[in-house]
Amino acid sequence: MKSKFPWGVVFIISTAAIGWTGSVQPAIAYVKTTFASTTEIHQEVDFKANPRRVYDVLLDASQFQAFSGFPAVIQREAGGTFTLFGGQIAGRNVELVPNKRIVQAWRANSWPEGVYSIVKFELKEQGSGTRLIMDHTGFPEGKKETLEAGWNEHYWEPLKKYVDQ
Predict the structure, then answer these.
(1) 16 in a domain, yes or no?
(2) What are phi and psi of 11, to 5 degrees?
(3) pTM confidence score
(4) pLDDT, tens only, 45-100
(5) Distance between CA 89 and CA 14 in Å, rounded?
(6) How high is the pLDDT of residue 14?
(7) Total domains in the fold of the chain
(8) CA distance linking residue 139 with residue 144, whole number of Å
(9) How many other C-beta atoms lie within 10 A of the C-beta of residue 146?
């Protein structure tokens, strides 16, 4: 069976909507379609800064604003929402492992309503610095080249200048 939606879709839903009655609320509930795009981006970037510094900058609104030059609002907990680059990017933190991993449901405001991709940042200590390994999956078809360029231009180049000074 083929889907008319070639990309992976993540639905962010309230716990009430799925009838959650447990005493511990999950950060988010998500369902990924079985028709996920095979398109993905894998990038690795080395920083002179340690993993804690890189992790902090990616999750602190004022530091994110400082390196990107655009407004950012970030709730720094699993399940917390974020808007970056003045609202051009929005999403939710799915998993946070301090100084090691950030997993986000991530979307550009130009994508169809309700379409989220998954971005995973792995931070590996490398001497006194950090190797950041980023995997971005489940984005709409035809967006790979634009996203690859955007990661370099709007994340890695200014982040490197900011944390490695």
Answers:
(1) no
(2) -100, 125
(3) 0.78
(4) 999 999 999 999 999 999 999 999 999 999 999 999 999 999 999 999 999 999 99
(5) 21
(6) 38
(7) 1
(8) 8
(9) 12
